[in-house]
């Protein structure tokens, strides 16, 4: 046997020895080696959220040169600990000095609709598990810039505990002065008492459209509280889009989801003053919540046709709308989850694909508990159930994000239906399905891939030594050594 043959045999012997040592005695399922997901983190009952301020709605279109200038409206929700309270509410009055404009303080009154100027009132106080939410309706004067631009004044709320919270009110200032071609129509928001006694009005002042509080869902609000109007752009007939004799309006919820279809209301085109354009009919909503009345000012040309895109407010764009009214509708005194088949508290399974039915690989089932406004609720107990499979726990408590989750495993192939409930009420959807698939055995490799690579390296080294030895022999014959 020559040198090369000896090297090859030696390498082969090493390889076979490694196979004999490393080959398992029984086959194992490659799919069955998955580790279960880590256990869900739960928050102890009574968890308290950090104080926060949520802007619900505000007057987001104004103009210095129109009669709708100098007006401020804002509705907000302040979340705090149960023992805390509102100490001060203030806002940036002068929009020409932003972002460093000073804050002006609003006085607290029992009902902001009975007052004008810088005031605020508490529309509703809700208490819950370690949490209190105070809903505020504020109003007052403001001062806008003399040009069309985007600004973002702030509102500030100070709590008795010393916590200071800020909310931002982005708005598009629409001016009817300046270059004729740049002018746009503007939503007309009346101030003080200019509408009192006007035909169709049922309010004590011009600000009744904002901060309406309805505690009884069977009650309706008369449409005469809500004033819909707009001023024309003051463009000439030659420039086109000079007529504004119609406004599109619509009610939406706090998340800007429409709750009514869009409608139009007509009036005589005008550049100053007010036209009596109160909503026809009464207002009523199906679910508790905060609702906003939005409006878009239309535009057309008095002479011929013209494309008024960019001049009129586009009713297909929520960002083009101006809020002109609000209602706190039948808000409960206690903060509770919004459950049921159409509620905002949801149930979900992590994946629509199946996992192995090996009793170890898990699906994660997640419940997100929210109130009627869509805000998360912490410290809420969610109960989970499944007719088969194994849940990591039969209940879990929501964290600060309103989320509670459990894991589901199964050693049987098929579909497992999981339900989640809060205080006996189902979530949305009422159940979810988790799929578990057959375990498929895969051929077990004879050796660990890393060992196989090492063996191949050894074998290659043997071959190289054999070749090197042969060359040395040939060289020795030629040289006679």
Task: Name some characteristics of this structure.
481 residues; mainly beta; Immunoglobulin-like; 3 domains; 8-stranded mixed beta sheet; 5-stranded mixed beta sheet; 2 helices; 29 strands; disordered N terminus
| Number of helical regions | 2
The number of E-state strands comes to 29
Characterize the biggest β-sheet: 8 strands, mixed
CA(first)-CA(last) distance: 22 Å
What strand line-up does the widest sheet have?
1-3-7-6-5-4-9-10
Radius of gyration: 36 Å
Strand content: 25-35%
Report the uncertain regions. Answer: 1-47
Q: State mean pLDDT (0 to 100 scale).
A: 82
Anisotropy-based shape: extended
Counting helices, strands and paired strands, the structural category is mainly beta
Count of all domains: 3
Helical proportion, percent range? 10-25%
Quick take:
The chain is mainly beta and 481 residues long.
Please provide a written account of the structure.
An 8-stranded mixed beta sheet has the order 1-3-7-6-5-4-9-10, with no helix packed on it. The longest helix has 31 residues, at 449-479. The chain is mainly beta. Mean pLDDT is 82; it is low at 1-47. The protein contains 2 helices and 29 strands.
